[in-house]
Amino acid sequence: MAIQPLLILLLGPIILALPVYILGRSNPSIAKWSTTGIVLLTSLYSFYLWFFNFIGRNIYSGVSGDKVDGFVMHYKTDWIAEAGISFSVGVDGLSMPLLVLTQVVFLVSIVSSYFVKDQEATYYALLLVLLSGIVGTFVALDLLLFYVAWELVLVPMFFLIHIWGGDNRKYAAIKFFIYTHLASLFMLIGLFVIYIEGGNTFYLPKLKQNFTGPVDIQTVQIIFLLVFVGFVTKFPQVPVHTWLPDAHVQAPSPASAILAGLLLKMGGYGLIRIGFWLFSDSTNKNGVPFFRTPAGEDIRLLIAIIGLISMIYPAFIALRQDDLKRMIAYSSISHMGIVLLGLAAYNPMGFNAAMFMMIAHGVISPGLFLLSGIIEHNTKSHTRLMSKVGGLGHKMPFTTGLFVFLGFASAGLPGLAGFIAEFTAFLAMFQDDFLGEEYILIPVLAVLSVIITAGYYLWAIQRVLFNEATDELEKSQPAKWWEIGPILILAIFTLVLGILPGQVWEILDNWSQDFFN
Amino acid sequence: MVSDVVLANLAWATIAIPFITGITLLLMSLFEIKGDKKYSEKFTGSLGVAGLAGSWIVSLVVLVQFFKEKVTHKSTIGHVNQEFDFLPSVSGSFKWGILLDPLSVVFLVLLTTIATVIHFYASEYMTQDPAYTRFFGTMNFFTGSMLGFVLASNLFMAFIFWELLGFSSYLLIGFYWQKRSAASAAKKAFLYNKIGDISFLIGIAIIWNKTLEATGSATLSYLDLAEMMEHGDLRFNDFIVPALLIFGGAIGKSAQFPLFGWLPEAMEGPTPVSALLHSSTMVKAGLFLIARNYYLFYVHADGKPIINLSDGKLSGVIAEFGLNSNSFNAANAIVWIGVITALAGGLMALTATDIKKVLAFSTISQLGYIALAMGAGGLTAGMFHLISHATFKSLLFLCAGAVIHSVHSNEMTKMGGLKRYMPYTYWTMLIGLLGLSGVPLMNGFWSKDAVLLALQTNEEIVLGEVAYVIAVLTAGLTAFYSTKLFLLVFHGEPRYDKDHVHPTKTGMRMRISLVILASLVVIESLWWTIGTIIDTDGSRNDYWNFEYALGTLFHSHGGEFKVSAAIFPTVVGLIGISFAYAVYGNKRLDWMRTRPLVISAEKVITNRFGVDQAILWVAETPVMGIGDFFQKIDVEVIDAFIIDSLITNGSHRLADMSDTFDNEWIDGTVDKTGIQIRQGGYLFRRIQRGQTSYYARIMTGSLATILVVFTFVRFV
Description:
The structure holds two protein chains of two kinds. By secondary structure, chain A is mainly alpha-helical.
């Protein structure tokens, strides 16, 4: 049997978690360094796989030898054959960038976890389990495997918040768990309906095939709404978003980085994969694609409205936050609203924008969370409150520079990753006949909310970084390499994605062109 | 022969050089922080100046080669357009690109020339500043952004550099970030600009969508759009809204009414920054955008010059396009916003006492002038005034910088009598102010005249006569405050603190810069004067008449100077000068300053007509109020009510109910059954007596009963 690259990425970390834990019990630094080593290797490997399989080739056109059912690096074996359950993995243009992103975000989160001195072995072992869970979500081609991976993510994340979190960590951890778990029950019902309606199989390409052509619109609508509830809570969007600020505020900053960088993207990925991709070829009796039928347009309108509200409402709240992390958390919700709006536009550019937004936000927001972690560690009373911290520029110039850089990146400065996604998402909305003409107010309001975004970032930058230094910063020292290095890596990614988005964009564009053909 | 590719590559180099030096310097400033090391000012300053000087030299090569290659014959003016994919997509790609045509090339040279002089000046002005390296890094980055914007071939790339311009101006205005006022000013500038950017962005999105609808493949390229507009693939009427939105971008960046409030605050940056910001970058970007997208604002037909809407023969074309007078709203809006801005800026400059703020308000006023010219169809006139303004305003700011450097104060009330100490500054500033006030035969005179002429001859403008009168009045105001500034700074009694302030001579490099810019003003004045006089025969077949040449190059019209039309504005200007002299010079009319009417008018004006307060109020009261309100919803409705009350309490209630059900119904039933059985047991226990005779009796009785029943059953 040939080496299955995705199995290495999927199962490697979880298998190594136990030895890391056992060895780390006696000597915590083994846990620290071996985890760093493992994730460094998987990161490099995922980059290799990306270059090897995607750069310069369109996996949808021409003959691509190793492509099975539209997926590369495909692997499938029976799991519970009688029930139509298989163990199948594979990636395409949608999941591969997210897979690489996962590795990068994990690498930087692990390096910036070096401040953890409490139960290190458990901490790093949990991170490895978490990594497997997230990778599993992105590569699973079987709905049951997807669900298992999805639920697997909750457990380590719960403990990361619960054990290493802030003062109110127990409340936040339980809130996080209940919210996402309750939502995934809706999703589970949805998955069962898919299983029953889709010909008793959990294998995604097969399901997509079975949903091709005329289908019962009502059923698809119900399925969509069920899985939408599940994914949108993870995403999270108004009004099921309140777990996120609490979880972020209480979680240790590396866990925040993973939470913002990857856990939110799981929701977005799931929505695109199961909500949209699965039904991309479904039509009504007259051959109109599902999402262009009145029922489908209702769904798109619903998504657009939720996206719009989620863009504006948290932006206003972020304006009034005193806690830096809380502000960034609300800003995350606001940015995820753009993803929904891009999807609602339902054209290739909108999809590209939505996917690009997930990647861009996946490198920008972890950086911001890690920065707020650095600020917290360097203040006298370990605070992140903007009213108490001020004049950081005098004490920590590098941190200040990176904060300005990433803050502006998040506010959509051209030349950086966030802008590409924002700009194209807005254009895509105006381009759509449905949103751009009938409901033109939605894109216009969405664009206007950018002012608010710029407003809260500028305000935060002015309050925290500029002015005179407050006495909170008396003992602060310039950041250490393992604090600043990871953020620098994320900043470089932000810049490269902003200046040369072509490579990633092309992969996304190939995927969405295939989607719409 | 130089091929198009080489020309385009040279143009890329003009953008790249300042960016490279800028980013290098910024990285160096990071290392300075890290290693507690200080690079010598000589080295970093030279690198900063060299970045611009290199760009300037290349831009001159571009200018010469472009005119040699492309402007061979006046009727066929070529262009170089080089584009490649930035975001490739099947349904229309976003592109990087360079467009070289007379408009961009002329602006390119103007920009690099002035920016180089300002950098040279700053290399002395900024000495001893701890952040010397960072200053030059940001300045180069800023100029590079402007160059990218000027040379961009499409709206997408223009927007990218437009935003970068906003960002780097944020860094420059907030250069002294330790100061609260500077940090606030930077934030204010960025947010005001952002409002304009949003408008610009929506405009781009609509244009993108409309071209996609019209042709099936979307484009944002200037040339494509102009061509499609000309050939009627796109309907002019459909583009009124995007035109207004794009002008909205210009309102933000070019500080037009009502978003002019950020510009005076932007004086918080070092003076060279102000000079650069006000002369040929940033604030000119918005106006350049209008010139670049002229096809959105004017009807254009048959490749003929841009149409002056009053031109009689065009009525046919207008009819052909199905336009009525309502269709000119976009152009009219520009004219009137320009008029209001010009007047408001002029009035505010009258009352300001800070020397840099006077110049800043004056910039606002002059920007309004340029905008109204462009709105009235005078693309050439607008660009003409833009060029002359860029020259004399950069000179004036640098002079002001020299004055501030010398007396360590911005307030004109603390200056006076400086003529003795700084002769160079005195004479160069005099030249700049003569240009600004439009004294006959100076460069400002010719360009201002062109602006007024464009306004006067366009009959499509709503209330055009009123606009004209206001514009002329503004010319008078300009002359007034220019004279006032000059008299207060250089003449009269010294009012500075003589014990601590000792005015010094201007430094060498600063002096050289002032002389260079002053001679540029003189050269322009001479060239344009001679050109106009020579051209009186009407043959116009040479490029001596600068305005006419510009008009030809821009496919527009220009050079229709008429003495009769110039008399009125000139007289008003001279009245302004003599009036100012009467008030501030020989003080004959000094009493007027204490009149209650004047004082209350002053109050209104110094409050900037309440526009700024209104915007601030909106930002503080409703916006923050909404924030608080949403926050409240989050905490009190979603979290407290839905989550805590409904879901948490609900599930508690549900649990209680289940508990009750469990206890009372399920358990209760079981218990009750048990109790019943037990009670039945008690009942039956009574018959278990253990007495044989009793059992025998029961048994007999039972058997008898059975027998009776059976018998009965059988026989019935």
